[in-house]
């Protein structure tokens, strides 16, 4: 990975999301549901939802990154996990900010594959080492990415904020 960084600003994020939506629309893919991978995918899913006129947005919480460049061994789904009945026989677009290793996306795509009519993925960035080749990518890079929502540290630090179900 390069020591240089990609810097995504909020205005550039708006442009990226709009262009990504255009690529999806031009491809003729018309999702019934956009499934965002929290947290970074929430922003992408919201932008795509507006641009593609999809109001049915769902969230899947997955923990993998524990810091800059530090991860768990494998990504873990956090509760609440989407009800597969809500996804059944739907065309699902999985949205995330980046396909870095691709482990998180693979976990979510594998979860969806058994239950949905069709699943595709859309990301702002895809890295060369990703295990998943996303159908829709705004930009490919090998750099660390500074996203506008995560470049500053949190205002407060919370320990153990994930609730047991």
TrEMBL record:
Keywords: Glycosyltransferase, Transferase
Record-level Gene Ontology MF annotations: glycosyltransferase activity
Domain of life: Bacteria
Cited SUPFAM superfamilies: PRTase-like
Domain Phosphoribosyltransferase, chain residue ranges per copy: 11-152
Matching PANTHER family: HYPOXANTHINE PHOSPHORIBOSYLTRANSFERASE, HYPOXANTHINE-GUANINE PHOSPHORIBOSYLTRANSFERASE
Name of the protein in its database record: Phosphoribosyltransferase
Organism: Streptomyces oceani
């Amino acid at each position: 990975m390069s020591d240089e960084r990609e810097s995504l600003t909020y205005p550039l994020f708006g442009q990226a999301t709009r262009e990504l939506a255009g690529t999806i629309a031009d491809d003729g893919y018309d999702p019934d549901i956009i499934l965002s991978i929290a947290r970074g995918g929430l922003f992408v899913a919201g932008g795509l939802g507006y641009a593609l006129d999809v109001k049915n947005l769902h969230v899947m919480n997955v923990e993998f990154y524990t810091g800059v460049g530090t991860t768990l061994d494998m990504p873990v789904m956090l509760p609440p996990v989407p009800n597969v009945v809500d996804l059944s026989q739907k065309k699902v677009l999985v949205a995330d900010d980046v396909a870095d290793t691709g482990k998180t996306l693979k976990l979510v795509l594998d979860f969806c594959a058994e239950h949905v009519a069709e699943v595709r993925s859309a990301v702002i960035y895809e890295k060369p080492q990703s295990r998943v080749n996303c159908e829709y990518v705004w930009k490919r890079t090998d750099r660390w990415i500074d996203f506008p929502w995560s470049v500053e540290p949190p205002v407060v630090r919370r320990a153990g904020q994930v609730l047991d179900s």
